Amino acid sequence: MVRFLINRPIAVFLSFIGILFFSVLAIQNLPISLLPSIEVPSVVIKVDYPNNSAQVVENSILDQIRTELNSLNNLKSIESTASSETGLIKLEFNYGTRMDLAYIEINEKVDRLQESIPRDIDRPRIIRINTSDIPIVRLQVIPKDADNFIGLSELADRVLKKRLEQIEGVSIVDINGAREQYISIQPNKEQLAALKIPESQIESVLNSANQSLGKLSIKDGQYRYFVRMANRLDDINEIKKLPLATPSGEVISLNQIATVQFETEKVLSYHLFGRDEGLVITVHKQNSAKMTELVPLVYEAIERFKIDYPDADFDLTQDQSTLLNAGIDNLTTSLIYGGVFAFLVLFLFMGNFKMPIIMGITLPVSLLISFILFRAVGLSINIISLSGLALGLGMLIDNAIIVIDNITRKRKDGLDIFEACIQGVNEVMAPLISSVLTTLAVFVPLVFLNGLTGSLFYDQAVSVAIILGTSLLVAFILLPLLYRVFFQKSKRKIKEDSFFFLLILKGYKAIFNAIWKFKGLSFLILLLLIPLAYFGIASFEKSGLPDIEKTESLISINWNEPIDAEANKVRVKELLTDLPVSAITETDIGISQFLLALEDGRVENAELYLKFESKEEKFETENWFSDYFKARHPNASLKIEDAPNAFDQIFESDNRYFISKWKNLGRNELLDENSLSKLLADISAYTNAPTQNGKGFLFEESLQAVIDSKALAFYGITESSFKNALSKSLDGFLVTEIRRFGEVTPIKINRSQGDLRSKLANATVQGRDGQEYQLTNFVNLEFVNIEKNITADRTGPYQSIEWEAISDEDVLELTKSLPKVGAKYGLNVDFSGSYFESKENLKQLIFILVISVSLLYFILAAQFESLIQPLIVIFTLPLGILGALVVLKLAGITLNVMSAIGIIVMLGIMVNDAILKIDTINRFKAEITSKDKSERKNMIAEAIAKTGQIRLKPILMTSITTILALLPVVFSAGIGADLQRPLVFSVIGGLTIGTFTALYFVPLAYWFVTKKK
């Protein structure tokens, strides 16, 4: 095959040019995003029920929705949280579930419930969770005139939102902090009483005037006309002129006995940029859109907004494309430095300028061809797939160096250039293919990990497979062809090893001879290092993603007081005024208006995003926050964390390490604060680990109204009419709406401002004989502590006690003892938390690693036609892992996702070197014809020594090139470098030890474990 292709250089070159042309087209059409589009098997249902307690939200809405949804197919878990005015249900499905079908089924079931849940609530919002739901950028809109906030809200909703949605690639534009207005009618109680006009007449007149007749038509001769009764309530002036009749027959207009004006709807959320009130607009991209092209278009649109709408200030924040740009920059840096260092290393080892040029051609060609395969398998360009390409670059360089070196060696053996190219490729083809297969055998099974990790590994594994496959294609076809073109006219004898390499070779021989002299002891020492790798992994500090040097903080505040959004805003502004440093701040206060918001917000909550100039400022300010709240607001709950990036938002979980759920399945009753204190005291007998009360064990003060039913009956007042009067007496009520061109303007009858008791004193209810009575005569008010939240799962409400810092021994003790404690209180206890998920993931990971090693063994056994020799390669792996762990420890880096990926890549390169070395020894061994045992052993020893010298150059060039290409990341700054640095240290540490292993451990192991007969 190689001979056939090298004989047709023009056809091969034209074929590669054609492939590269289509690759460029593929790159232009490839979607570019921050993360791969992953169908997260979760759905969130949000319910808004204003002016209702958590108990009402749970009993009236969430309980019925949970019961209906329990029968969903592939439903893994269902959790709900009822809070005052809001409810949240989280549905988690088994991985592999068709979420489009599940979403349809959920909507059908929710629609079926519309008749059984309260009719005065909006339809529950059903939100699918997807990686593309993360906003790519946030637009801050601040009015220059604070009194024109309604106009700004209308501008954002009707104009800015639509202009942003028109940008190609934008999917959703979401707004928070907007305000709406309504038409307020506030009757004058004294005038109504003097004219003897009941307030109910105002309601009746408004409803009658706002009716429109439908299905009305007349016939006039041959023609038929549809008749539409024009709606009189087109604007506020029409409302003011509405006629009211007095008992004496006099007609007066509404504005004579009531104040009719526009007012702002009750504000449940604010957004601050700095200390200025404004709006925030989030922009979300389509799955197929290119983020690198979309974000600049958004920036251009904002520049036009600044010109077109001078009454507002605009600013863009939290640009997520910086992460993607960092990944692209890292890949570009790796390519540039990889090419430069490959040139330098080849020059140092070979002293020839043409070979680096060949490398400079084959590297980008391999990369470009990879993108056409990306298009074929449906991958996007994202952080994960780019990291896969970056991982494959090391082995791509490795393959090219090995092929070039082997062709050069064949030429030195006296073959002409044509035969040298053919035999040089054929000789290493089998071991290189085996090395790629063994790398994939280690890497690809990770795709089958459950959960989001496995889904993310899919993009990475496929991209690694693509880059390795294209590197083999280029190394076996294009590279020997280029070698022939570059060197076919060379009359001179090819320059052999450089002076620099000869010095290295001399040092290698000296060390090899010293080790070989005491080969038994040397082999034993290296074998004893293997168990250290296992103990190193077991004891090494582990984490999810690497620590990124962030200069952004997220401060979550719960004031733990029943304050409204206005008071919440005042407190936050005071806080920002006292802030000791100047920082970019964004604050979302109260209940979020975002359609895609997944949190169960409350009016007394606030979330502050702060961006600092330096990490020192960030650290100092976070400490200041802790001191500030201890001194000024000791009852408030404060959570300080790094502001999450897109990775964190996908991977983060609010699930605690160990959770005990306490349920009363018989009566669904919840424990009060006194019972909780006793329960915690009983639990403390089994563990000293600090506990944290779950949401269901949080309480708040509430005003409870007790109706005097006997008094109502005595005065002839029905309870329903009293409750109706009571509900209308507090904040007013909706009468009707003006609907025009898709706009809806509510019309409400309002009440005068004042405290609760004065409102009740001014409100009346009609009793027997039309007599009016004050509401205060029939209701008693008292403050009580009630549940702040009600949490529930499949089986109903529960209250949880949680642990974050707890040993595995304590977990085992609690799982045995807590059911006995629960029986004392008549409660059942269930357990959940990340502890159980981690145990399950660890079991699965061990199983997958066993499969990977087994695949590795069988591939090598087929390659070497031996059941023993593959063990040599497998036993080299722990030594490389040990080297990686040593360097990670010295650098102060944990064992995380990125460092683990680095170890996998390093092992792939190590395996490659070991396979080639064993394959070369086997070929030399096969050439030995002597049957004398002593002579044969000496000849095998010579074959091992000769193989070491032959393979020294490609092994060193591969390792040094890879290490030098990665070194710039160590000294780089920024989030991209922070993500890649653990990977780099893993590769550097592993290859440093791995190179030593390939040079000395493999020959020793081969000598002791293979037959020398």
From TrEMBL:
<feature type="transmembrane region" description="Helical">
    <location>
        <begin position="331"/>
        <end position="350"/>
    </location>
</feature>
<feature type="transmembrane region" description="Helical">
    <location>
        <begin position="461"/>
        <end position="483"/>
    </location>
</feature>
<protein>
    <submittedName>
        <fullName>Cation transporter</fullName>
    </submittedName>
</protein>
<feature type="transmembrane region" description="Helical">
    <location>
        <begin position="428"/>
        <end position="449"/>
    </location>
</feature>
<dbReference type="Pfam" id="PF00873">
    <property type="entry name" value="ACR_tran"/>
</dbReference>
<keyword id="KW-1133">Transmembrane helix</keyword>
<dbReference type="InterPro" id="IPR027463">
    <property type="entry name" value="AcrB_DN_DC_subdom"/>
</dbReference>
<feature type="transmembrane region" description="Helical">
    <location>
        <begin position="897"/>
        <end position="916"/>
    </location>
</feature>
<feature type="transmembrane region" description="Helical">
    <location>
        <begin position="357"/>
        <end position="377"/>
    </location>
</feature>
<feature type="transmembrane region" description="Helical">
    <location>
        <begin position="983"/>
        <end position="1009"/>
    </location>
</feature>
<keyword id="KW-0812">Transmembrane</keyword>
<dbReference type="GO" id="GO:0042910">
    <property type="term" value="F:xenobiotic transmembrane transporter activity"/>
</dbReference>
<feature type="transmembrane region" description="Helical">
    <location>
        <begin position="955"/>
        <end position="977"/>
    </location>
</feature>
<keyword id="KW-0472">Membrane</keyword>
<feature type="transmembrane region" description="Helical">
    <location>
        <begin position="845"/>
        <end position="864"/>
    </location>
</feature>
<feature type="transmembrane region" description="Helical">
    <location>
        <begin position="383"/>
        <end position="407"/>
    </location>
</feature>
<feature type="transmembrane region" description="Helical">
    <location>
        <begin position="871"/>
        <end position="891"/>
    </location>
</feature>
<dbReference type="InterPro" id="IPR001036">
    <property type="entry name" value="Acrflvin-R"/>
</dbReference>
<feature type="transmembrane region" description="Helical">
    <location>
        <begin position="521"/>
        <end position="540"/>
    </location>
</feature>
<dbReference type="GO" id="GO:0005886">
    <property type="term" value="C:plasma membrane"/>
</dbReference>
